[in-house]
Design a protein that fits this description.
Elements: H1 3-29, H2 37-53, E1 77-79, E2 89-90, H3 93-107, E3 115-121, E4 124-131, E5 134-140, E6 146-148, H4 151-155, E7 175-183, H5 186-198, H6 207-215, H7 220-224, E8 229-239, H8 246-255, E9 265-267, H9 270-283, E10 291-298, H10 301-307, E11 309-310, E12 313-314, E13 317-321, E14 326-338, E15 344-355, E16 358-364, H11 368-374, E17 381-387, E18 391-399, E19 421-423, E20 430-432, H12 438-449, H13 461-469, H14 484-488, H15 495-507, E21 510-512, H16 513-520, H17 527-537, H18 540-545, H19 548-552, H20 559-570, H21 572-584, E22 586-588, E23 603-607, H22 615-624, E24 628-630, E25 639-642, H23 648-656, E26 659-661, H24 663-672
The structure holds 2-(butylsulfanyl)adenosine.
C-alpha cells in the first residue's frame, strides 16, 4: 500500500478510536451521551471493518477488542497488593451515630467529621489494575488477599475503559489499582431469566447471583452477552498520582474515564449521611440496579490512615443497610409443579402476607437440595424476601412448626399424570417421564403461544388448561384445528372472544422459522439459539434431520445443546407434531444479520438522496444481506450507491475506481442477494 494511503488509514483508525472512547465516556461516565446509538454503532462498525481488513492495525486496547480471548480451563490467582476489606454494618440510626462518636473518640476530636456517602451496590466486588493507563489485570475479591483472574471477562464490560483517559493537564498515573462493584441491572436480569426459562435452563435467584454467574464464566463470550455494568469506589495501590480524600479520589478517577456512581455525596457530618440514607431509601426501587444500603466513608485519607482497621474492616467506613424487604409467614404446604420439560419444582404455598406492596402467597423453593439445606418443612414459619424486587424467596426458617412435619420428599409419581419420576444420581433435576403429561403439555402450549414464539394473543393459562382437559389439544399442532364453535363451548368463553382467539391463531400461521424453533420448547434452545439454527438450516425438515455434528458446527451451539436437539427430534411423537406444523404454517426464513448474507463483507457508501427508500432503510437492507455501510470512500469500498444529487463521495469513488451503483443497481444487487 502506498505510504500516503496507509498514513490516512492510520489517522482514520485513530480518529475512530478516539471518538468511540470519547462517546463511551460521555455515555457511561458522564451519563450524558452526545450521539445516538445508531451513530455510535456506525463508528464501531467502520472501525471493525478497517481492523478486519488491516489486522496489523489492531491493538489490544482498541474498543473493538472486548470479546477476544478464547475460553480458559480455569481462573488464575491474583494476589491483591493491598487487602480488599469488608465493611461492618449499622442497622439503625443510633448505630450510625455511635459509629461517628467512635471515630471522634479515636481521633480525640469533637469536630464534625466529613463523610462521603455512597450507595452500597449489591453486586460482586472486583479490582482493576491499570499500568501506564492500560488495563492489565482484573480480579475478584476472593478472600481479600487472593482473588481470581477474570481479566478477559471484565474486558467485555462496556463501562470498563480498556485504557484510561488523560485527565486535563495531569498525566495518567503509572499504577492505578481501583476497586468497585460489577452489577447486573434489574431490567437485564428480568430479560435474562425470561430467556433462560424459555430455554428450560435454571433461572438466577437475584441480580447479584446473575452478576457472579456471568463473571465467573470460563468463556468470555458468555460474559460479553450479558449486560453487566461497573461502578468504581475504592483505591488500591496508586503510583504517580495522589489524592487527599475519597471525594477527590472519586472525581480523579472519573476524570480518568472510570465510572463512579453519580449519586455519591459529600456530607459535612453524620446527620447529612442519615438524610442521604432517607433519600436513597425512598429512591431505591427506582434505581436501575439492586442496592442494599448506604456506605459512609470518612472523607479525609489522612484520617482514614490514622483510623486504620480492625479485623479486616476499616474503622473509617460502615455500611448502613436498608430495611430488608422481608416478612414472616407460615408454609401451609409444599406443592410440586411440573414444567415444560417435565422438571419438578417444589413451591411453598404461603399464608398470604403483604411485602413491598404486593401480597405474596407462593415462593419457589427451586429444588430438593435447597429445601434440605434450609430444612424447610410444612407448618414452619419462614422469613421471605423479595430478591431483585421480583421473585420472593425463602431466606430461612424462623420457627419450626409444632409438632414438626416430616422432611419434604419429592414424589415418586408425577403429581399431575401419575407417571414415574426419574432422578439421576448426582443431578438436581427430577423429571416426569411422560411426554404426554398434561402439565407438560400446558407449559408447552403456553410457551408455543408466547410473544417470542408464535405470539398467539388470548391463548391464556385458563383457556389452555381447559383445552387440554377437554382433550381438544393433545399436540402443539392441534391448536390449528380449533374452531370457534369448539372454543365457544368452553366455560367462560363468549362467542366473540372465541372468534378473537381463532383469528389470533390464524394470524400466527404466517411466521418465521426462528419463532417456530423457539416455540417447540427444545431444552437449551432459547430465542438466540433458535435464530442461529433457523439461519443455518432454513427449514424444519433440515433441522430435524441434522446430525449432532452438523448442529455443533453452528455458531454458539455446544455439545449439550446439540444433543438436546437430537433428543427432541429423536422422539417420534415430536417429529410427527413438527411435520404437521410444517403443513399448517407458512414459515419464512428470518433475515440474515449483518456479516453473514450474500453481500457478506461488501462495503457500501451511500451518497445523495434515494427515491424508493430512506437512507436508514437502505442501510438496514444492506446490513441484513451481510454488507457493511461506512461513511467514507476508500480503495476498500466495494460500492458507492449514488442517489439524487450525490456529493463529493461520488467524485472520490470515480477517482479511486470504486464501482458506482445507482438506486436500481442497488435494488438489483439486493434481489440477487
Ligand atoms: S467500600 C474498605 N463502597 O460491600 C471498604 N464497598 O461489605 C471496601 N460494596 O466487598 C469497600 N458498594 O463488594 C464500598 N460504595 C461501596 C460499596 C461497597 C458495595 C460492597 C463491596 C464490599 C462489601 C463490603
Amino acid at each position: 500500500m502506498p505510504r500516503a494511503d496507509s498514513h490516512q488509514l492510520n489517522v482514520r483508525v485513530e480518529q475512530l478510536r478516539e471518538q468511540i472512547n470519547h462517546h463511551n465516556y460521555r455515555y457511561h461516565v458522564l451519563d450524558d451521551p452526545e450521539v445516538s446509538d445508531a451513530e455510535y454503532d456506525g463508528m464501531m462498525r467502520e472501525l471493525e471493518a478497517l481492523e478486519r481488513e488491516h489486522p496489523e492495525l489492531r491493538t489490544p486496547d482498541s474498543p473493538t477488542q472486548r470479546v477476544g480471548a478464547a475460553p480458559s480451563e480455569k481462573f488464575g490467582v491474583v494476589v491483591h497488593r493491598r487487602m480488599m476489606m469488608s465493611l461492618s454494618n449499622a442497622m439503625n440510626p443510633e448505630e450510625m451515630v455511635e459509629f461517628d462518636k467512635r471515630i471522634k473518640r479515636f481521633l480525640k476530636s469533637d469536630q464534625d467529621i466529613e463523610y462521603v456517602a455512597e450507595i452500597k451496590l449489591d453486586g460482586l466486588s472486583v479490582e482493576l489494575v491499570y499500568e501506564q493507563g492500560a488495563l492489565v489485570v482484573a480480579s475478584t475479591r476472593g478472600d481479600g488477599i487472593n482473588g481470581e483472574d477474570i481479566t478477559p471477562n471484565i474486558r467485555t464490560i462496556r463501562s470498563v475503559p480498556l485504557h484510561l483517559r488523560k485527565p486535563g493537564r495531569d498525566s495518567i498515573p503509572r499504577l492505578l489499582e481501583v476497586r468497585g462493584e460489577v452489577i447486573f441491572p434489574k431490567a437485564g436480569f428480568a430479560k435474562l431469566n425470561a430467556d433462560r426459562e424459555s430455554a428450560g435452563e435454571p433461572v438466577f435467584a437475584n441480580p447479584r447471583n446473575a452478576a457472579a454467574g456471568s463473571l465467573r464464566q470460563l468463556d468470555p463470550k458468555i460474559t460479553g452477552s450479558r449486560p453487566l455494568e461497573i461502578f468504581l469506589y475504592a483505591a488500591g495501590v496508586i503510583e504517580g498520582a495522589s489524592f487527599a480524600s475519597q471525594w477527590e479520589f472519586l472525581q480523579g478517577i472519573k476524570a480518568l474515564g472510570l465510572r463512579i456512581n453519580l449519586l455519591s455525596r459529600l456530607c459535612r457530618n453524620v446527620n447529612a449521611v442519615l438524610e442521604y440514607w432517607n433519600e436513597i431509601t425512598e429512591k431505591r426501587h427506582a434505581l436501575a440496579y439492586d442496592a442494599d444500603g448506604v456506605v459512609a466513608k470518612v472523607n479525609s485519607f489522612e484520617l482514614q490512615e490514622r483510623l486504620g482497621e480492625v479485623s479486616r474492616s476499616p474503622r473509617w467506613a460502615i455500611a448502613y443497610k436498608f430495611k430488608a424487604q422481608q416478612a414472616q409467614t407460615v408454609v401451609e404446604n409444599i406443592d410440586v409443579q411440573v414444567g415444560r420439560i417435565g422438571s419438578l419444582t417444589p413451591v411453598a404455598k404461603l399464608r398470604p402476607v403483604p411485602l413491598a406492596g404486593v401480597t405474596i402467597s407462593n415462593a419457589s423453593l427451586h429444588n430438593l437440595d435447597e429445601i434440605r439445606r434450609k430444612d424447610i418443612r410444612e407448618g414452619d414459619t419462614v422469613l421471605i424476601e423479595r430478591a431483585g424486587d421480583v421473585i420472593p424467596y425463602v431466606v430461612r426458617v424462623t420457627q419450626q412448626g409444632s409438632p414438626r412435619a416430616d422432611e419434604f420428599q419429592m414424589p415418586s409419581r408425577c403429581p399431575v399424570c401419575g407417571a414415574a419420576i426419574v432422578h439421576e444420581e448426582g443431578e438436581v433435576a427430577y423429571l416426569c417421564v411422560n411426554a404426554n403429561c398434561p402439565a407438560r403439555m400446558r407449559e408447552s402450549i403456553r410457551h408455543f403461544a408466547s410473544k417470542n414464539s408464535l405470539d398467539i394473543e388470548g391463548l391464556g393459562d385458563k383457556l389452555v388448561a381447559q383445552l387440554i382437559e377437554q382433550g381438544l389439544v393433545k399436540e402443539l399442532d392441534d391448536i390449528y384445528a380449533l374452531t370457534t364453535n369448539q372454543l365457544a363451548g368452553l366455560e367462560r368463553m363468549a362467542k366473540k372472544s372465541a372468534q378473537n382467539v381463532v383469528d389470533a391463531i390464524q394470524k400466527s400461521r404466517n411466521t418465521t422459522l426462528d419463532r417456530v424453533i423457539n416455540g417447540l420448547g427444545i431444552r437449551h434452545v432459547g430465542e438466540h439459539t433458535a435464530r442461529q439454527l433457523a439461519l443455518r438450516f432454513k427449514t424444519l425438515a433440515g433441522l430435524s434431520t441434522a446430525s449432532e455434528e452438523d448442529l455443533s458446527a453452528v455458531r454458539d451451539i455446544g455439545g449439550e445443546v446439540a444433543r438436546s436437539i437430537r433428543e427432541y427430534f429423536g422422539e417420534p411423537r415430536n417429529l410427527k407434531a413438527v411435520r404437521r406444523l410444517e403443513e399448517e404454517l407458512q414459515i419464512a426464513v428470518p433475515a440474515e444479520p449483518s456479516g453473514r448474507g450474500a453481500l457478506r463483507d461488501k462495503t457500501f457508501v451511500l451518497t445523495g438522496t434515494l427515491n424508493s427508500m430512506s437512507r436508514e432503510d437502505a442501510e438496514g437492507k444492506i446490513m441484513a444481506a451481510g454488507g457493511r455501510v461506512t461513511g467514507s470512500v476508500s480503495r476498500k469500498t466495494d460500492f458507492v450507491v449514488a442517489g439524487a444529487e450525490p456529493g463529493s463521495k461520488m467524485k472520490k469513488a470515480q477517482e479511486l475506481g470504486v464501482r458506482v451503483l445507482d438506486e436500481s443497481g442497488l435494488l438489483e444487487l439486493l434481489r440477487e442477494g
